[in-house]
Design brief:
This protein is mainly beta and about 260 residues long. It has a single domain, classed as Beta Barrel (Porin), CATH 2.40.160. It is about 10% helix and about 60% strand. The strands form two sheets. A 14-stranded antiparallel β-barrel has the order 1-2-3-4-5-6-7-10-11-12-13-14-15-16. It is globular and about 55 Å long.
């Protein structure tokens, strides 16, 4: 319990770190964005420390935002489980007015039987349809921690881009710093609840709440967050293959469908 208090203390004294990035895979979307303590190869994005607890898997995601063809993304990830450690590789192409290409390399390791740490190095290439912006390359990093407090509760924490890497010099624009603290609690052996708090530079706190119900070959998910998005999702698995379907519903902007495919090594 003393270690749990340390996580909460750490989060409360971090500065309020622009916009909260939208979930870029079907699982996180269906949980309302609550993913700091969720285990999958997509953990490389939300808490690389969780790769230690995740199986070796190849995964991909395709997603569209609000039915607008120019706002789509493709995310490919591969995780490798090692002895008390894990490696992760991923590539993200996110389209919009600002097109982002993001390549990540992550390493996670257990430092105790119930605690793991992770670091991810990110290379980002930004392009824009607006001629005002030129191409920009930059490098950032993420730091994550995962703590299994007891058989029913797990805590995850990640800080992304703490140095606020510069995007353009004049006027001065920087990539935001994002911090995420999340809890997973097993209500029953087949039901898990997730709660995340996310803060970004100059933005208010965003809260995410999700629920996951799984049985044999199926998993059903639901969630919501303070950005007025409700998430719904379903996973079907057959042996080593998983298909995840997620749907984000915004009360003004509309629907954002998302689909994952995963294969265990």
């Amino acid at each position: 319990m003393r270690k749990l208090y340390l996580f909460i203390y750490l989060f409360s004294y971090l500065p309020i770190f622009p916009n909260n990035p939208p979930p870029n895979n079907a699982i996180a979307l269906s949980l309302g964005g609550a993913s700091a303590a969720h285990h999958s190869p997509f953990s490389i994005e939300y808490n690389s420390a969780n790769l230690v607890w995740s199986p070796s898997q190849f995964g991909f995601n395709a997603q569209n935002r609000f039915g607008i063809g120019d706002y789509s993304s493709l995310f490919v990830v591969n995780s490798f489980k090692l002895d008390k450690a894990a490696l992760g590789l991923s590539f993200l192409m996110d389209q919009g007015e600002l097109i982002t290409y993001k390549t990540q390399v992550a390493f996670a390791k257990k430092i105790e039987e119930n605690i793991s740490v992770g670091i991810a190095l990110n290379h980002l290439l930004f392009k824009s349809i607006n001629p005002y912006y030129k191409k920009k390359h930059t490098v950032t990093f993420n730091l994550g921690v995962s703590y299994i407090a007891n058989p029913k509760m797990e805590v995850g924490f990640q800080i992304s881009n703490p140095t606020q890497s510069q995007l353009i010099q004049y006027p001065n624009e920087s990539i935001p710093t994002n911090t995420r603290l999340g809890i997973c609690y097993s209500i029953t052996p087949n039901i898990k609840a997730y709660l995340d708090g996310i803060q970004s530079t100059n933005e208010p706190l965003n809260g995410c709440i999700g629920l996951e119900i799984y049985r044999e070959e199926y998993t059903v998910r639901g969630g919501f967050n303070f950005n007025q998005v409700v998430g719904l999702g379903l996973t079907f698995k057959k042996k080593s293959i998983h298909f995840d379907i997620g749907l984000g519903i915004h009360n003004v902007l509309g629907l954002s469908p998302s689909i994952n495919g995963r294969h265990a090594w």
